[in-house]
């Protein structure tokens, strides 16, 4: 079926839901939606929220609503536990409010054991779907409105990308745009390839068209999103590199800033580094997950680079773009990680000069190769390493972030702080800056002097509006 035809059908289901809801009550129904996980999930959550609003629902902050929707994540076990906690709480609300519809979707729902548990222990959940049929939400929800039976619809795979579904965004001036879905890397600890499926890239024309429309609607900063953007376009009928896509995006008039994530070190090309260095719009910020500094552990993780290659890459990037801000993801406690391996991780943190690093404790995900590895690291050793890593990451982060002290940077103003008359925005390096200013500057670019570095953020003052 053509993508437009599918979108057309789903738009009709939105209308059908709207009619049904209008018939069943004179009061405007409410919905509550929550997002777990990555920025790609956030975009899908925003789309579901936009669809619910089109159906006639009003968004509310509390779980005591006519419909409660969760977009789930399963990268680490604690996100799963959080969902079960929420469901327990919802059970008591639903006892008082039996018509409430509970909807679960996203990555966690692609796991067989999760769906079986929901089928057996959480019968009051109304609708469950996964990551491959999110575009079917209006149709599935229409069925949900007509029955009290639990509806579960999980697809194993899909090679279809449906374009043009309704969407909304948190900020009028910046947003994320997915350029690809899924992942083919199979890092041995990671569940993403199993729950998000094989890598699929959107056609460059569809991406450009979406960004042009966003820019016409007031957006000036976009974040191109994918699990591994550096392998964008390889599976398209006419292959395109990510750098080529960036060059096309750069041409869009009115667009001021381009960001992207996530980059896999093994695929980061010289072409991309050069494109970034020559661009006037691509922000000087790169998120480059390290995971571990030990070449032995990296091999076990199936990351396909080693410590030396990673550090060489960092040097190459810094040479081409001297003011680049590097951020990363690091994991401790991967099976078999020794103190020596961990020391290698600390060594990379000392050498790579990250502005920020997101640190994680390894979480065993069933079905991944690492889950079957025998030498799991004892919990107390993991906790001890995690706290030592955090201390170093924070110390280095403070040191590196302070390199802009006293400079004047262009800031995109994002919010007014709780304290009235003070604003918050970001430099192209993704550093947060607080400064006095009026609310009407939100969404605008101003030049700010970065006066005092407070660790991970700055206090400054406007020098030019
Ligand atoms: N355990 C802990 N952290 C993980 N990540 C991915 N899988 C796991 C896991 N099983 C982390 C990686 C990745 C980030 C998005 O989440 O560091 O880069
Ligand atoms: Fe997971 Fe590795 Fe793919 Fe990232 S690149 S999503 S860590 S398999």
UniProtKB/TrEMBL annotation:
Annotated residues for binding of [4Fe-4S] cluster 2: 183, 187, 190
GO cellular component, one term: cytosol
Keywords of this entry: 4Fe-4S, Cytoplasm, Iron, Iron-sulfur, Metal-binding, S-adenosyl-L-methionine, Transferase, tRNA processing
MTTase N-terminal domain segment(s): 29-146
Cofactor note: Binds 2 [4Fe-4S] clusters. One cluster is coordinated with 3 cysteines and an exchangeable S-adenosyl-L-methionine.
SUPFAM superfamilies linked to this entry: Radical SAM enzymes
UniProt binding sites for [4Fe-4S] cluster 1: 38, 73, 107
Record's protein name: tRNA-2-methylthio-N(6)-dimethylallyladenosine synthase
Organism of provenance: Blautia luti
């Amino acid at each position: 079926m053509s993508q437009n035809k599918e979108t057309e059908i789903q738009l009709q289901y939105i209308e059908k839901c709207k009619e049904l809801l209008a018939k069943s009550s004179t009061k405007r129904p409410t919905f509550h939606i929550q997002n777990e996980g990555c920025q790609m999930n956030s975009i899908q959550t925003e789309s579901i929220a936009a669809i619910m609003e089109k159906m006639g629902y009003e968004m509310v902050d509390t779980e005591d609503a006519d419909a409660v929707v969760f977009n789930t994540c399963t990268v680490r076990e604690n996100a799963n536990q959080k969902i079960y906690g929420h469901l327990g709480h919802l059970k008591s609300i639903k006892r008082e409010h039996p018509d409430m519809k509970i909807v679960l979707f996203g990555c966690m729902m692609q796991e067989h054991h999760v769906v079986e548990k929901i089928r057996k222990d959480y019968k009051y959940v109304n609708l469950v779907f996964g990551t491959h049929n999110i575009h079917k939400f209006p149709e599935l929800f229409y069925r949900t409105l007509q029955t009290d039976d639990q509806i579960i619809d999980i697809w194993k795979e899909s090679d279809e990308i449906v374009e043009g579904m309704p969407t909304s965004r948190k900020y009028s001036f910046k947003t994320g745009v997915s350029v690809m879905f899924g992942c083919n890397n199979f890092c041995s600890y990671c569940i993403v390839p199993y729950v998000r499926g094989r890598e699929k890239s959107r056609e460059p024309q569809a991406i450009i068209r979406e960004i042009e429309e966003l820019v016409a609607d007031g957006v000036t900063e976009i974040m191109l999103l994918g699990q591994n953007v550096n392998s964008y376009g390889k599976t398209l009928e006419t292959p395109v590199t990510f750098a080529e896509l960036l060059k096309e995006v750069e041409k869009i008039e009115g667009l001021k800033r381009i960001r992207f994530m996530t980059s896999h070190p093994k695929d980061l090309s010289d072409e991309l580094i050069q494109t970034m260095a020559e661009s006037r719009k691509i922000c000087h910020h790169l998120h480059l997950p390290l995971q571990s500094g030990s070449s032995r552990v990296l091999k076990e993780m199936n990351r396909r680079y080693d410590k030396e290659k990673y550090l060489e890459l960092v040097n190459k990037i810094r040479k081409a773009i001297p003011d680049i801000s590097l951020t990363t993801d690091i994991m401790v406690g991967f099976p078999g990680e020794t103190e020596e391996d961990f020391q290698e991780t600390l060594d990379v943190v000392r050498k790579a000069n990250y502005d920020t690093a997101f640190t994680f404790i390894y979480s065993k995900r069933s079905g991944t190769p690492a889950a079957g590895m025998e030498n799991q690291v004892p919990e107390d050793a993991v906790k001890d390493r995690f706290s030592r890593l955090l201390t170093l990451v924070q110390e280095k982060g403070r040191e590196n972030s302070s390199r802009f002290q006293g400079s004047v940077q262009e800031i995109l103003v994002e919010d007014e702080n709780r304290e009235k008359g003070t604003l918050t925005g970001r430099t192209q390096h993704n550093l947060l800056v607080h400064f006095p200013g009026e609310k009407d500057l939100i969404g605008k670019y101003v030049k700010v002097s970065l006066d005092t570095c407070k660790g991970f953020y700055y206090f400054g003052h406007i020098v030019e509006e």
